[in-house]
Amino acid sequence: MEEFPESQEQLSGEMTASAIMPGHAGFLDPNGRMGMRRTILKAAAAALLLAPMIGAAQAQEVKEVQMLHWWTSGGEAAALNVLKEDLSKEGYAWKDVPVAGGGGDAAMTALKAMVSAGNYPTASQMLGYSVLDYAQEGVMGDLTEAAKKEGWDKAVPAALQKFAVYDGKWVAAPVNVHSVNWLWISKPVLDKIGGTEPKTMDELFALLDKAKTAGVIPLALGGQNWQEATMFDSVVLSTGGPEFYKKAMNDLDMESLKSDTMKKSFDNLAKLVTYVDPNFSGRDWNLATAMVIKGDALMQVMGDWAKGEFVAAKKTAGTDFVCPRFPGTDGSVIYNSDMFGMFNVPEDRKAAQVALATATLSKSFQSAFNVVKGSVPARTDVPDTDFDACGKKGIADLKSADSGGTLFGSLAQGYGAPPAIANAYKDVVSKFVHGQITSSEDAVTQLVQAIEDAQ
Amino acid sequence: MSSVATTRPVLTAERDEGIRPTVRSRLQEALPKIVLAPSFAAIVVFVYGFILWTAYLSFTTSKAFPSTNWDGLRSYEKLWRWTFESSPPSSWYTSITNMGIFGFLYVFFCLAIGLGLAILLDQKIRGEGVLRPIYLYPMALSFIVTGVAWKWFLDPGLGLEQTLHNLGWTSFHFDWIKNKDFVIYTVVIAGVWQASGFVMAMFLAGLRGIDGEIMKAAQIDGASPLQLYRRIIIPLLRPVFLSAFIVLAHMAIKSYDLVVALTSGGPGGSAWLPSNFMYEYTFKRNQMAVGSASAIIMLMGISAIIVPYLYSELREKSR
Transmembrane ranges (chain B) (predicted)? Predict the structure, then answer.
């Protein structure tokens, strides 16, 4: 009869423990572990039924962060490890929320399911408008206290705060700032064909022609809609200038979207696409980067995560590759940013969440992480000593763009408009690149229509 | 004492026999219902419940999350408008025309190749036991594996074209998988490759089920082999055609993974099927209402095929 010695009280205590922390039931045991173990099975069954009701009845702090992210590839995982170690020094365990499929889309679907079920992770890697979407649903936490203490208001660029702060409350911790208006040029190939870094669109086309005659693939492009749209972001900025970019791509001003400047931008894109190899459709971005790294192609237009690939291939900025801004966009930065969205977790998990957010925005992590990732720190007061030439340029550009008002959200990356519109935009650009839409006039009409449909 | 002692057991035994069989038989009667109840409840909630839920969502303003704000037929109006936007093609237009092309070619070629293989295998050839599983084997693969394998095989820079170029046939050109107008046909190729062996097995079973006497009688009457197949055997296979058609048609409509694995949507989304459209709009484009509406239209499409089939099946049974 030894199986049933526990009092009712003890049983309910256990139900709470195992409901809140599956696998950590021993943590709260006041009377020794033996009785505990035996009732877990019984309690687990009860807990399944009772879990929603007693979810809030926990007082003891849980020293664990549950993290949903899709940084699993070599460089990214290594970068994230810095954060894991920082947290474990403070005594917080790190638990990845498993995502089948691994990509960002799969992760966002998993997150949607978790949040709909009321099962919030401590934090999730998120992009731009999706943070605001979730904040609107009222499921995000509040980090304002930590933000005040750490001075985030001053250090984080205002453009980023638009996504990290909702209704006056900090709901996300930005991890980095990527910018997308870069050219990644192979230095050996550039020297071989005797070219120089282009400063204008015309110089760019001249350089691409030069590469073509030399028998090198001039432009490495992955024919997936987000890559094409990412390149088009830069084309629009270059063709229309900063004012126009902001009006068309961030404010979604219909007149600008219909304008001749927009048509000109599509024409420039069409011209750029003539320089890609015939096999580009469907190629992943990192394979396109690899073409530049190997010297098969002259250049790629891509965000600075491409630098992570160069670094991983042991290439040095300045000698093996150069990184000018996309011609005609010097002085402006089209950004996107990875953020850790912080969810409204139960009280007992709040301390771990604050620790995670604080560690994420600490100067040491911001520097260490972004050196590996290829991006630049999300706060402007981090010293650039550890960064390479491209990184230093990126940090300086971000600072000047932030103060000069030329820091714009990338529409392709979901920082210019909500996802429904960003995806409609990507569809139109992609259909234009692949020939379903045959003229720039059609493209402009389609773009306006698609954006209207998505609103 | 002894009489009491002897009668008692008899009495209890009688009473037991009077009660136990009824309890047991009641239990026996109820058992199938008890066993089926959980799965029945699960199906009611998770299949039919969610069909209703999806139908409801398609009339709301749902975007990233389900919402209950009534919006009438707006999502259907959008789909209806997109149905006729052929130049430049809307994503929905692409999806439904692709469905037509893919559905027709996939079913047709699977039936034709399956029947052809079955007839050839039915010629009492040696090694049938080895050949049959070889043709059937692709069916054991998941669509994802098929998709990835064919993606590499059809990729001009990696697969067939590159190999033939390396062998010296440099004028060979086959880039369908990168071509917006032809990419859907690569989905047909991979799909047919996967399913035709299975259809062959169905036809083979049908052929084996035909009475040998009929064929002998036809041969005695002087029917040529061609006539034999055209006039006698293939008409006798009608039920197999119907079953194969139903299996293939619903596989065609729910094809999603093959398109994703093989083409990741194709250049500019030119390989989308309605299922891809539904997923993209619901989960990636934050237009859940439009996605739900497209799901309902797909359901109606499937019903248009399945309901007549069920009707004819049930009618035949009751006869």
Answer: 34-56, 99-122, 134-153, 182-207, 228-253, 288-311
Residue listed under structure tokens 């070219």? A195
pLDDT digits (tens, 9 = 90+) for B167-188: 988 888 888 888 888 999 999 9
Contact B78/A454, CB-based, under 8 Å? no
Element spanning B33, H or E:
helix B2-43
B283 touches chain A (CB under 8 A): yes
Contact list in B for residue A100 (CB cut-off 8 A) is none
> What are the average pLDDT values for consecutive 10-residue runs of chain B, which has 319 residues?
46 52 84 90 93 94 84 90 87 93 95 93 85 87 90 87 88 86 93 92 90 86 86 88 89 89 88 92 87 93 83 74
Structure tokens that stand for A217 in this block: 């693939």
CB atoms within 10 A of CB B201: 20
Chain A residues with CB-CB distance to B144 below 8 A: none
- Inter-chain residue contact A420 with B91, CB threshold 8 Å: no
Q: Give the helix/strand (H/E) hosting A341.
A: strand A338-342
- By CA distance, what is B265's nearest residue in A? A282
Q: Are A197 and A204 within 8 A, CB to CB?
A: no
Three-class DSSP category at A348: helix
Pick the CATH number of A64-176+337-392 from 3.30.9.10, 1.10.760.10, 3.40.190.10, 1.10.10.10: 3.40.190.10
Which of A116, A420, A436 is the closest to B88 by Cβ?
Answer: A436
CATH code reported for the domain at B85-318: 1.10.3720.10
Q: Is A71 left (phi over 0), alpha (psi -120 to 50) or beta?
A: beta
- Kindly determine whether residue B264 and residue A224, on different chains, have CB atoms separated by under 8 Å: yes
